[in-house]
């Protein structure tokens, strides 16, 4: 954390006085968590089992034996000092990974162009994921896009697996679970803890080029998608890898590829009858995360904040996060509709996809997504300086644009 504070002061992103002294609680802290944290005396903290100025790593260690105390520990950390823990950051080199960890980032994403000699057992142990875990003083999330088929980063290391479409056409759900357990065990040995998979989108266009989905989807039948996505995620879980369903509220019938331009999803009634069905059926699965995409969503609006789904990417739309968290959508998918989702909610990449970057620079996009309700803002592109993003998020917490209560809730969801 000391490296984090020094780096931010050098950049003059925020005043050093603000960095070194936690701001007092404001009336906006509706749950009082910031006030409670600042009011704790050293003896109070000691009685609870953590230091007066705890680190996230200290809180993570407590979570293994007492979740409630671990949450109190997180509440004792100044919210702005948790800014890095709200980000999932793409890294390609060990130096980038070290820099991110030193800035308080606790989720490293390995995408295109990453140096896989950092993986455990594949290079210098002093420059490995294990070394980064030790450097963090706690527990890092290490993620990758490892879907199968056309999106598979580790094929040359641990072998290929079929596309989602091939799985559904040629394998039973149990066979998919067994295959993903075996594949996940190989990922785990390399140091990964999370896979941004499986796709829970219902295929619309016939190929990947049409809207980035195609064979990445299990089927055009929402029930088949839900069944196979659950089987896939279960296999990963059995291997100790966290699964992430994507791309809520559905990318399979969008008007194009959000990597290339702004795209629009069908209307809300159409989504609820089709694309949202798999997410509704998967909403009750425990120990999984969801990823929100960048498609515009006509009819999913936040009128109180004048945010209209037809004009706003889902990843920046508070109404989309509210829909996912509250559930009750797609009542035809399960009795009572979707269950309220209690897991971690990620954005899709905010720094390398034109549906976002055409109008929102990386730091601004991360702040906007966290304001909207994301727990983790994914900044996978190395073109954006991590220090700038962490600094922007930190300042947004200090000035109240990102509520402190949400900071604490998001960090607990993602890192405890």
Automatic annotation (TrEMBL):
Q: Which InterPro entries match?
A: GH, Glyco_hydro_3_N, Glyco_hydro_3_N_sf, NagZ_Beta-hexosaminidase
Question: Would the keyword Signal be found if you checked this record's keyword annotation?
Answer: yes
Glycoside hydrolase family 3 N-terminal domain location, by residue?
132-412
Q: For bias kind Low complexity, which ranges apply?
A: 22-44
| E.C. no | 3.2.1.52
- Matches recorded under Pfam families: Glyco_hydro_3 (PF00933)
GO biological process per UniProt: carbohydrate metabolic process; peptidoglycan turnover
The UniProt keyword set, sorted, is:
Glycosidase, Hydrolase, Signal
State the reactions this protein catalyses. Answer: Hydrolysis of terminal non-reducing N-acetyl-D-hexosamine residues in N-acetyl-beta-D-hexosaminides
Q: Which domain of life is it from?
A: Bacteria
Q: Recall the GO molecular function terms of this protein's record.
A: beta-N-acetylhexosaminidase activity
Which range is the signal sequence, renumbered to this chain?
Answer: 1-20
Enzyme class, broadest EC rank = hydrolase
Disordered: annotated span: 22-53
Any coiled-coil regions, as ranges:
none
**Family according to the record:** Belongs to the glycosyl hydrolase 3 family.
**What is the name of this protein?**
beta-N-acetylhexosaminidase
Organism for this UniProt entry: Corynebacterium anserum
Lineage, uppermost ranks: Bacteria, Bacillati, Actinomycetota, Actinomycetes, Mycobacteriales
């Amino acid at each position: 954390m000391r490296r984090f504070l020094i780096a931010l002061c050098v950049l003059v992103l925020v005043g050093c006085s603000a960095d070194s002294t936690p701001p007092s609680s404001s009336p906006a802290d509706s749950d009082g968590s910031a006030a409670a944290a600042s009011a704790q005396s050293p003896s109070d903290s000691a009685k609870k089992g953590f230091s007066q100025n705890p680190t996230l790593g200290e809180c993570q260690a407590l979570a293994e034996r007492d979740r409630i105390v671990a949450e109190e520990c997180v509440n004792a950390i100044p919210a702005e000092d948790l800014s890095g823990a709200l980000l999932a950051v793409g890294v390609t080199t060990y130096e980038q990974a070290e820099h991110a960890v030193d800035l308080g980032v606790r989720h490293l994403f390995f995408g295109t162009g990453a140096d896989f000699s950092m993986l455990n057992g594949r290079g210098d142990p002093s420059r490995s994921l294990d070394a980064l875990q030790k450097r963090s003083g706690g527990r890092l999330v290490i993620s990758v896009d490892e879907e199968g088929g056309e999106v598979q980063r580790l094929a040359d290391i641990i072998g290929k697996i079929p596309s989602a479409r091939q799985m559904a056409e040629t394998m039973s759900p149990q066979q998919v679970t067994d295959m993903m357990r075996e594949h996940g065990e190989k990922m785990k040995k390399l140091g990964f803890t999370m896979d941004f998979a499986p796709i829970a989108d219902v295929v619309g266009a016939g190929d990947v080029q049409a809207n980035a989905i195609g064979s990445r989807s299990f089927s055009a039948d929402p029930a088949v998608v839900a069944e196979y996505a659950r089987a896939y995620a279960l296999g990963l879980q059995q291997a100790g890898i966290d699964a992430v369903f994507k791309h809520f509220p559905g990318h399979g019938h969008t008007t194009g590829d959000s990597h290339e331009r702004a795209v629009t999803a069908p209307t809300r009634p159409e989504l609820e009858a089709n694309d949202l069905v798999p997410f509704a059926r998967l909403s009750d699965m425990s120990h999984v995360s969801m990823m929100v995409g960048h498609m515009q969503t006509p009819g999913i609006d936040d009128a109180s904040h004048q945010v209209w789904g037809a004009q706003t990417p889902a990843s920046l739309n508070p109404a989309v996060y509210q829909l996912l968290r509250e559930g009750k959508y797609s009542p035809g998918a399960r009795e009572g509709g979707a269950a309220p989702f209690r897991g971690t909610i990620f954005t899709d990449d905010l720094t390398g996809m034109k549906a976002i970057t055409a109008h929102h620079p990386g730091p601004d996009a991360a702040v906007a997504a966290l304001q909207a309700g994301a727990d983790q803002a994914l900044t996978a592109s190395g073109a954006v300086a991590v220090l700038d993003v962490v600094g922007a998020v930190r300042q947004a917490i200090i000035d109240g644009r990102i509520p402190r209560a949400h900071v604490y809730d998001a960090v607990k969801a993602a890192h405890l």
